Amino acid sequence: MYHITLDDKKISSTNNKIIALINYRMLLKRADLPNNKHWASLYKDDKIIKKETINHRTASISIETDISTNEIFIQSVENMGVSVNQLKLLIKQIDLHITNSKLVGWLSKPSSRKYQPIQLDELYVMLDILTQAQAKIGGYTPQNYRNLITMTGLTEEEFYKLFKIPKTTFYANIADVAKNNHRSMSYKAWLELQEKVLEFLESNA
Q: Where are the beta strands (DSSP E) in 64-127?
């Protein structure tokens, strides 16, 4: 838990590091507080990690190096609820040469041997992919199912035969919700199908 204090009085708390740092910077820039007369402090749990007098001129640079591009990426992935496999599926649909190990490295902590920094241009592209992941294959919907089929380049018949899906079940799952023959798909089955499609795409790369 992060805490922010003004002259040793707690004014906000959050579990989110990025929100804590933004709130801390905003405190340093508060126009109603004169420069160099009040103390701002930022704590993580009970340990102080920043303390300085409020100064509007230096507030903008006070925390600029505290948030890495990796943290932004990881936070975005968590907030959007997108799985690694969903990211892999979409990466394969564009001309972006990102290996699985690099993707895992971006999502790893700096203390991990797998860690790899994500560059700003890579982050820009990945945030766009995250948005697409939500729109195209986030959770099961008939449209997302049809998007998944399109990714494989297979016809509907080729798709259900290749992945051994009963024909009636297949067409019920991709039918619009308003149709009488529509049948929903469980979350577990949806994830399993995405994994199978990913294996197919990787084997045909």
A: none
Amino acid letter, 116: Q
Are residues 123 and 176 located together in one domain of the fold? yes
Place of tokens 């990796």: 70
Mean pLDDT across the stretch 109-125?
A: 94
Query: 6-20 burial by CB neighbour count: b if 16+ within 10 A, else e?
Result: beeeeebeeeebeeb
- Residue 69 neighbours by CB under 8 Å, 6+ apart: 117, 118, 119, 120, 122, 123
Q: Kindly report, residue by residue over 153-177, the tens digit of the pLDDT.
A: 899 999 999 999 999 999 999 999 9
- Kindly list the strands in the beta sheet with 39-44, ordered across the sheet, starting from the edge strand earlier in the chain: 9-14, 2-6, 39-44, 47-53
If asked whether residues 26 and 87 sit together in one domain, one would say no
pTM value is: 0.58
Q: In the numeric block, which tokens belong to residue 52?
A: 């300085």
